[in-house]
Design brief:
The complex is a heterodimer of chains A (about 375) and B (about 220). Chain A is built from 13 helices and twelve strands. Chain A is α+β, with helices and mostly antiparallel strands and about 375 residues long. In chain B, strand 1 and strand 2 form a beta hairpin. The chains are: A alpha+beta (about 375), B alpha/beta (about 220).
């Protein structure tokens, strides 16, 4: 009976219902998309590093596992010494550059021969390898997002580059230029930002890392397996704070809208609450009825939020193919729990106020 | 025979800001089971306040109220609510049906609140007696005033309360519908020995009752 009353109330006030459902849907969608985008981008970036095929990453002293926060590059000749370590089969240096046209993009300056030894070589969708110093390879996602074709000229780092090939994504960066060109452009001759080290068997990674530590005691040496485990938002304090703030904002939106919605409802329905009290409805009965109404609004909002998030993901990926949105069941459950919690807390005060209304005043309410 | 309602020196004072407004000023009243009592008097004489106190909707300021042997002054708000749920039925001038529910849902809501679940025999008996079988799936806005009041009476008696308290039940009705509602209340009283205490301005309505109590300035002036 209470459910029927709740359902009738919800249908009786379609605008209020729609606004409340929308607010909860936005809350759920915001939580899932913020987390989905940040973790998606982070994991996609990590997967690209993993996709290089190396077992170990060697970076300069004080470097962060988060590429781009790297300090000054290392001498390239270190690569020769790394290659001499037993169980190491290939070493590929890369010098990082950034360009910010159309978003922040990392460019790998690579030595094609050594990079191919570590990665097993690029898979070309179109075109082929570098033919000239100012040639660039772009991955298929970047090419799709920017409608790039082989032979086209791209301007970045204040130079024109000819697109020599479009390669399968997942090999570190989205843009690759020759190592020598990168060195010239950055004035860092014979330098590398990172060395990708491939072992004869990934099982030897720890053994090789120990050898590298002996050889280069202050350098940052990390296995790709460990790197993958570190690439989470928990290890990036600023990102974690951003996610927390965005979730808090989303929960506040849901809480405030449900609070206002239920508060308005009990003001509108003061007389009806008086009627229930005249029939002998207890405070608990009235609180339960209002909390059930808020829960039902919230439940519909959560479902709408899930559907909206899936649609938003498709739109985001169609509009920005280089982005990655990782929607997980775990965060869907968290978003739902946060929405339910926020809604119940938001509805509790109005429910309590309704339960405490004086029946005579409520019945006289116009 | 023990009275079903007994009040002694019953007083009720409302505070509006810093002003005290005495609504009941020492009401002594005895009502016996099965009686149909009409309370009449001018506006502001305390009739509705008396009804609210007897129904446990508000607490008296002083004096004693015994309803079916229960002393309201010794009962908490929750106890009075529970008592009202099982022993009191209300009928209001403005019908007070829930607008989002159908007539049937409005009636069965009282059974649900009482906690005994849906009783089809009692429901059918009440609906048949009040002649609202054809209107059960209608919402209040689709019912005439007379029909709404009959639904309200059905809701009030569905749980077989000891006392039916009616606050100007014909106040919003035309004479034809007023007569129908009064006849039904009379029938309830005669057929089921339903104790009814009805407030009214209407002398014709009061004439239906077994007994007429007149109030003025918060006191009973004639019985």
């Amino acid at each position: 009976m209470v459910n029927r009353m709740v359902f009738s109330n919800i249908l009786h006030r379609p605008v209020r219902t729609a606004v409340s459902v929308l607010a909860v849907a936005i809350e759920v969608g915001m939580v899932m998309l913020v987390v989905g985008l940040t973790t998606g981008m982070l994991h996609e970036s990590a997967k690209r590093v993993e996709g290089v095929g190396a077992d170990i990453l060697v970076q300069p002293p004080g470097a962060s596992f988060f590429f781009g926060l790297t300090s000054a590059p290392m001498p390239a000749k270190i690569g020769d010494r790394l290659a001499e370590i037993p169980r190491v089969v290939a070493v590929a240096p890369a010098l990082f550059q950034f360009h910010s046209t159309g978003g922040l993009n990392m460019i790998y300056g690579i030595d094609m021969e050594s990079f191919n030894r570590v990665t097993g070589g690029f898979v070309y969708h179109a075109g082929g390898q570098f033919e000239a110093p100012y040639d660039v390879l772009v991955d298929d996602w970047y090419a799709k997002a920017n409608k790039i074709k082989v032979g086209q000229t791209l301007n970045f780092l204040n130079h024109d580059f000819r697109v020599a090939g479009i390669v399968e994504h997942g090999k570190g960066a989205r843009l690759f230029i020759p190592l020598k060109t990168t060195e010239e452009l950055s004035g860092a001759n014979d330098k590398a930002s990172i060395f990708f080290v491939k072992c004869s068997d990934p099982a030897y990674a720890d053994q090789v890392i120990a050898s590298i530590h002996k050889l280069l005691p202050r350098y940052q040496v990390i296995s790709v397996r460990e790197y993958m485990s570190l690439m989470t938002s928990n290890n990036l304090p600023a990102l974690q704070a951003f996610i927390t703030v965005m979730i808090a904002v989303a929960v506040c939106i849901g809480f405030l809208v449900i609070f206002l919605s239920m508060y308005t409802t009990i003001t509108e329905r003061t007389r009806e609450i008086g009627i229930l009290k005249s029939l002998g409805a207890s405070k608990v009965y009235i609180i339960e009825a209002i909390l059930r109404e808020a829960s039902l609004l919230c439940l519909v909002g959560i479902l709408a939020g899930f559907a909206g998030t899936v649609i938003a993901k498709k739109i985001i990926l169609a509009s920005f193919p280089t982005l990655s949105v990782e929607l997980t069941l775990q965060w869907a459950l968290w978003a739902a729990l946060l929405a339910i919690g926020g809604s119940l807390v938001g509805a509790f005060y109005p429910a309590l106020r309704a339960a405490q209304l004086d029946p005579v005043d409520a019945l006289a309410y116009e | 025979m023990e009275p079903i309602i007994a009040t002694q020196e019953l007083k009720k004072v409302y505070r509006i800001g810093k002003v005290e407004v005495p609504a009941l000023q020492g009401v002594d009243l005895l009502v016996y089971e099965g009686e149909f009592v009409a309370v009449v008097g001018p506006s502001g004489c305390g009739k509705s306040t008396l009804l609210h106190v007897l129904g446990g909707l508000t607490q008296p300021s002083s004096g004693k109220v015994l309803v079916d042997g229960n002393d309201y002054s010794a009962m908490s708000d929750a106890d009075r609510t529970r008592f009202r749920r099982h022993k009191i039925g209300f009928v209001f001038q403005r019908y007070n049906l829930l607008p989002t529910l159908t007539a049937k849902q409005n009636i069965t809501l009282a059974q649900h609140i009482q906690g005994n679940g849906f009783n089809p025999h009692r429901f059918e008996a009440a609906v048949e007696m009040l002649g609202i079988q054809e209107k059960l799936n209608h919402k209040p806005y689709a019912l005439s005033g007379g029909e709404q009041q009959r639904v309200a009476i059905a809701r009030a008696v569905i749980c077989e309360p000891k006392i039916l308290l009616a606050d100007e039940p014909t106040g919003n009705l035309d004479s034809e519908n007023s007569q129908i509602v009064l006849n039904m209340m009379r029938a309830l009283n005669r057929s089921f020995r339903q104790t009814i205490l009805m407030i009214t301005h209407n002398p014709e309505a009061a004439a239906v009752a077994d007994r007429i109590i007149r109030m003025r300035d918060g006191q009973v002036v004639s019985d």
